[in-house]
């Protein structure tokens, strides 16, 4: 009778461990999905520039003063470099905020564990 009880108890413990592992994997997957949803919403949801024709001509004049050729490709080169910089800065910002949130969560979790132990 005692061995049957121990067997059921260990089996229940293994089930709890598996459920906790599955829930941890599920939480991590959800966090990653949420991160990408936020990232793509921020990056692709906001337009960088919406130039009028007058602003475009001023930009072309500005490019010519710096030695760029008077072509549309020069404008697109500048736009691409600004767009890439925007993506890099936004990615760094989102990653640093995510890192801070994880760091804060772990810190509070450790403090709660220490207070329970003492």
Give the structure's gist in a few sentences:
This protein is 87% helix and 0% strand.
Q: Into which percentage range does the β-strand content fall?
A: under 5%
- Mean pLDDT, as a whole number? 70
The shape, in one word, is elongated
Cα radius of gyration in angstroms = 27 Å
By DSSP (H or I, 4+ residues per run), the number of helices equals: 3
Order of helices and strands: HHH
Secondary structure: number of strands: 0
Structural class: mainly alpha
Q: What's the N-to-C terminus distance?
A: 38 Å
Query: What quaternary form is this?
Result: single chain
How many domains make up the 3D coordinates?
2
Poorly predicted spans: none
Q: Helix content range of the residues, please?
A: over 70%
* Main sheet properties: none
Transmembrane segments: 29-49, 83-105
Keywords: Membrane, Transmembrane, Transmembrane helix
Description:
It is built from 3 helices and no strands. With 118 residues, the protein is an all-alpha fold. It folds into 2 domains: 1-46; 49-118, no CATH class. It is elongated. 0% of the residues are buried. The mean pLDDT is 70. The chain crosses the membrane at residues 29-49, 83-105. Keywords: Membrane, Transmembrane, Transmembrane helix.
Keywords:
2 domains, 87% helix, transmembrane helix, membrane, transmembrane
